[in-house]
Amino acid sequence: MKIARFSHNDTIRYGILDGTDLVVLAGDPMFAGFDTSGERVPLSDAALLAPVIPRSKVVCVGRNYRDHAAELGNDVPKQPLLFFKPNTSVIGPGDSIVRPPQTQDTQWEGELAVVIGRIAKNVKAEDALDYVFGYTIANDVTARDLQKPDGQWARAKGFDTFCPLGPAIETDFDYTKGEVITRLNGEVKQQAPFSDMIFDIPFLLEYASAAFTLLPGDVLLTGTPAGVGPFQAGDTVEVEIPGLGVLRNTARDALTA
Ligand code: MG
């Protein structure tokens, strides 16, 4: 089942994707379940939004694919390298990625995103998937030229618009058989199976939840494979995960005074 968050007639609601329609839900399915309102809205009349606004945090994993660590000259970490993106960096499908004036090198990172559905603290890997609400697609946009000089990654990873999410949350998805494909203006730049991850999702949830409580609506980005690179204003970045859809965003430069 694919859950979308959408705007229609100036109202934000949730719906289940059903062909060319959205079956409108009575409330936020993470808290209110899947009761429907009895309405249907044609997809063509709705604007899809980020399917979730992370309630407290986006937890990210750096260097979780061997080839990507190598392409930037880094060793593979011995344990997961965690960082955060603020929830203010989240945008939805079709929204513009804004390139701020502080960077000359914005890059894409196509990633599988895990949406947390239950309060998770000290979960064990074997139970971890019980805490997952569903899966969606993320672009971990990065100001590569700020990442090393800053030392900490908060700014390079955390600018407004640097976390496109969507287009919907799939509640039934076997990520172990999945792959991610990233295209720049239609040309494939990244393609790798999730089986290439160094640390798998259950282990990442155990590791992260041992450090901090994960709340319903928090999101875990699972790392990007090799093939990252720069995009410019006017470029369109598409991240596709078969079974989850395509997350498409076009970049523009920030308006300057
Ligand atoms: Mg990343």
From TrEMBL:
Signal peptide from the UniProt entry: none
GO molecular function, one term: hydrolase activity
Every Fumarylacetoacetase-like C-terminal domain range: 57-250
Residue ranges annotated for the Rv2993c-like N-terminal domain, each copy included: 1-51
Pfam families in UniProt: FAA_hydrolase, Rv2993c-like_N
Membrane spanning residue stretches: none
Keywords: Hydrolase, Metal-binding
Protein name: Fumarylacetoacetate hydrolase family protein
